[in-house]
Amino acid sequence: MDDALRYLDTTGLRRLYATRQLSPVEFTRATLDLIADLDPVLGAFVTVAADRALADAARAEKRLLALGEAAWEDHPLLGVPLSVKDLTATEGIRTTRGSLPLRDAVPDRDAPAVARLRRAGALVLGKTTTSEGGWSAGTVNRVGPPAANPWDPSLSAGGSSGGAAAAVAAGLGIAATGTDGAGSIRIPAAFCGVVGLKPTHGRVPYAPYCPDRLAHLGPLTRTVADAELLLRVMTGPDTRDPDSLLPPHDAPRAPDGPLRIAWIEGLRAPSAGIPADAQRAAVERLAAAGHQVEEIPPPMGDAYPALVTLLAAAEAAGTSEADDAWADPARLAVVRHGRTLTAVQLVRAEAERAELTRRLLACLTRFDVLAMPTVPVQPFAVDAWHPDAPAYDDPLAWLSWAPAAFPFNMAGLPAVSVPAGPGPGGLPVGLQLAAARHHDALVLRVAREVEAANPWRDAHPERTGT
């Protein structure tokens, strides 16, 4: 497959389908061939559903031939090949959740978001690599190899939606779904140079329900427009996620005109930080376009201890002691900590979450959008889940190197990572944009502006790199 096809977006693909220069079967087969060629190095996929994807492509092709342009009515993703993170249930396709006890599990029902993507005409290529249960911001697991970064396969794609980000960056499908409990969409998007959106909590239903109320489901794509399209398809209430039933379902429209944007550069990672020159340049381009940009100190406070309590308690609640022998040893340390926690500690962590939310919302009365580096570190080794530094020897410090990511999970606010250009060593870096609850359209509006002004927007990893 040449690069013009490999890096298509949904608009370009639809144009080729409509003019019959390309068919869904041809494109899906070529994408599956590319997966077979590149994935032995990338490890982006844990399961490839080739036969089903081709059968679905044939049905899409039949619809196109019969209906022409009308084929896209109620099917905005007709013939679009994409992948689903291996935490998310897919009817008839193995869903291991990166866990040995589930290595042969095949759900009999799609998660709500997957069902909506299929109804919109999308073709599921397979399931992408994740860490066990999505516990870390890498993809080391005991089911298969970790996902490598297409820009340098010796480095991690990030996580836990690392397989999704690697697949999208390498052109193995038009888009992917990911999940994000503490940065797991945005971190790999930044590492791999793609767009990663964590919507407002509850906007896309998450099933099975996560009682810690940290988990979000969203898209990873090569363009902001495609992230918007997938979000529209997946949005809406479902009884399997009580939080998705809360209004409003019609999100506010993004305002026109100049915006008030806060630039936050002070969030550092212990012992492993990198300069934020590319992200700062992206924000300066926003200022040059007429937005009011002001640099401010981080408004979040230190919510990491509360995050550890919430996540460790959830990991412990979801893990039977009978399964300890099967668990990832590093994750097991978090589980065992969770088993020591008390109800009082959980209530205190929830109080800290409320205070963090209050701080962020107060800041967002002064500003429309918050902008900051998505991650203050470079990708680490492919077989790791954190930077190589003594600060991370403590097993409970496993996410402390991503201080800009998890606060927006705790507060449930929309946040997107958009490529900002090359960082040190020519590797991608991301700019994170966040806004008030339900203002997903606002962060996507600014993300489109960052994307349009980014001189690096058409860069892709070299095929020889994979």
UniProtKB/TrEMBL annotation:
Domain Amidase, first and last residues per copy: 26-444
GO terms of molecular function: asparaginyl-tRNA synthase (glutamine-hydrolyzing) activity; glutaminyl-tRNA synthase (glutamine-hydrolyzing) activity; transferase activity
Keyword annotations: Ligase, Transferase
Pfam families given in the database record: Amidase
Domain of life: Bacteria
EC number(s) per entry: 6.3.5.6, 6.3.5.7
InterPro entries: Amidase, Amidase_CS, Amidase_dom, AS_sf
Family affiliation: Belongs to the amidase family.
Protein name (record): Aspartyl-tRNA(Asn)/glutamyl-tRNA(Gln) amidotransferase subunit A
Natural source organism: Streptomyces eurocidicus (Streptoverticillium eurocidicus)
